[in-house]
Amino acid sequence: MALAEGLAETRRAQLVDYADPVRSGLAAAPAIEMGGDGVWRRGRRGRLDIVRLTRHPADGGLPPPPETDDAEPLRVVDAGWSLTCALLDPPGSVVRGARVVVVTRATVSAVRQTERMLAAFDGEAAVAAVGPARWPRLVEASCGPRLGELRSRGQVVPVPIDRRLQIAGLTGDRLPKPVAAAGRSLAALLAPARETP
């Protein structure tokens, strides 16, 4: 959500949630509900359109993201761990040609899992690291080569833990300022401001 809102500050954007409807963390996130079409339920939050599945596909296949009016839509896909492999695998990969953000926590097991994810993806990636900005030494020592390289290049953005979000989850309210700032930092990594001639 923070990344999608950060991107939506400059132009209209779409956040697509592929989570099973009963597991979606975005159910209460839209400020305005706009109804559904049988596959996707739509909502809006400022310049951000939020779409989430209305039901889990019966055939197990993933529907393509919903169409937009934009010729080149600015789309953030929230895959969740259970769908990450399906979204990366051909045919019809949702993330083909896209910039990928891997969300992790600053724990030994999480950074090891993140390294495996980064190794499976051959494109450019950024990492949103939920937790403290300064990692414990044991966590730093557990970083593999890809994650270590991304950290050294400033491609790992710390996202602070917010107690209110931990308890209430996402709602139509504004994100806490530190979380929103992290989203803007991620957005700047993915879509840097264009130089003017």
Protein architecture, described:
There is one protein chain. This protein has 197 residues and is an alpha/beta fold. It contains 7 helices and 8 strands. The strands form 2 sheets. Strands 2-3-4-1-5 form a 5-stranded mixed beta sheet, with helices on one face. Strands 6-7-8 form a 3-stranded parallel beta sheet, sandwiched between helices. The longest helix has 14 residues.
In terms of quaternary structure, the protein is: single chain
Instruction: Specify the structural class.
Output: alpha/beta
Shape, principal axes of CA atoms: globular
Average pLDDT taken over every residue: 85
Strand arrangement across the biggest beta sheet: 2-3-4-1-5
Summarize the main sheet.
Answer: 5 strands, mixed
Briefly, what is this?
With 197 residues, this protein is α/β, with parallel strands linked by helices. It has 7 helices and 8 strands.
List keywords for this structure.
197 residues, alpha/beta, 5-stranded mixed β-sheet, 3-stranded parallel β-sheet
